[in-house]
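Following the same procedure, sequence and fold were stored together, as reproduced here.

>
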Amino acid sequence: MNRPPADPAVLLARARDGDRSALARLLSLVERGGEPGLAVARLSYRSAVPYSVGLTGAPGAGKSTLTDHLITQVRSGWPGPVPEPVGQVGVLAVDPTSPFSGGAILGDRVRMQQHALDPTVYIRSMATKGHLGGLALAVPDAIRVLGAAGLPVVIVETVGVGQMEVEVASATDTTIVVVTPGWGDSMQASKAGLLEVADLFVINKADRQGAREARRDLQQMLDLSPPGSWRPPIIDTVASRGEGVNELWGEISRHRSHLRESGALDRRRVDRMAHELRRVLMARSAARIEELAAGEEFASAVKALAAGEVDPYQAADRLIGP
C-alpha cells in the first residue's frame, strides 16, 4: 500500500474525497504538533466548523456504549419538522495520559465495533504528544480537521472527570455529563465543575438502584444554580440496551436549536476562539521562555540574582523588557 503524501493540502484534498488513511495522517500530524501539525491546523480553519458534542463522566459510566448507540441516532439525521441529514459522523475518544496506555482507549474502540466498517463513521483514539498547548488545543484542531474533511457532526468522548477531561469535553457546542446511580459519593469534588459545563445530564444504568436519588440530586443542584435561558435536562438511559438514546438525541437537537435561535452558538464559538488564542499565546510564551532559559543571558541573570545584585523582577525585566 502506498503511504499517503506528507503535504497537508494534498492530504486534506484526499480526505475530502473520502480517503480515510489521509484523514488519519492529518490527525496524526495534529497530535504530534510541530510545523506540519500547525500547517494542518491553519488549513482546517478555512473550512466550516462541524457541530460538536462532548461527553464526560467517571470511568465505567458507560460513555462508550452510550456513544456507540448515539452514533446510530446521529446517522439518522437531525430530527425536526424538516429532518436534516447528517451524512457522516466523527468520534474522538480522548485519553489525556498516554497514547500507548491501552485500557480505556482500546476498550472504547472495541465497544464501538458495530460502526468499525461503516464508511460514514470515523472513530479515532487521541492523546497529546507534541502539540503546542497540549490536548486543550489539539482537540479543537482535530475537530476542525474532521469538519474540513466533510464530517458535519463530531462526538468527543473523554475517559474521566478530571480538570483536563472536563475542559476538553466542554470545548464543544453541546456538553453532556454522564453519571450513574450513586454518582454523588464518587464525584462529590467534581460537582460544581460538572454543573458549570453541562448542557445535558444523562443518568446511565438508570435501571439500577439509586437512579431516582441521582435525579433528585441533580435537580437540587440545578435549582440552586443561577437561572438562565437553558436548564439542562436530565435523561435516563440504559446504554447496554440502547434505551433512552433516542430521547438523548432529541434533547441534543433541541439544545442545538436553542443555541442557533438565541445566537448563543456564535457567541460560544467566539468565546472558545478567544480561549484558544490565549492558550496559543501562553504556549508560545512558555516556549520562548524555555529558549531564553537555555541562553547565556539567563545564566548571567541567575548569577547576578544569587549574588544579590538584582531581584527576580529586575532580572526578568532585563531579559524580556518591562
Observations:
- Residues 277-320 form one domain.
- The beta strands are 51-57, 89-94, 121-126, 153-158, 174-179, 200-203, 234-236.
- The CA atoms of residues 216 and 298 lie 57 Å apart.
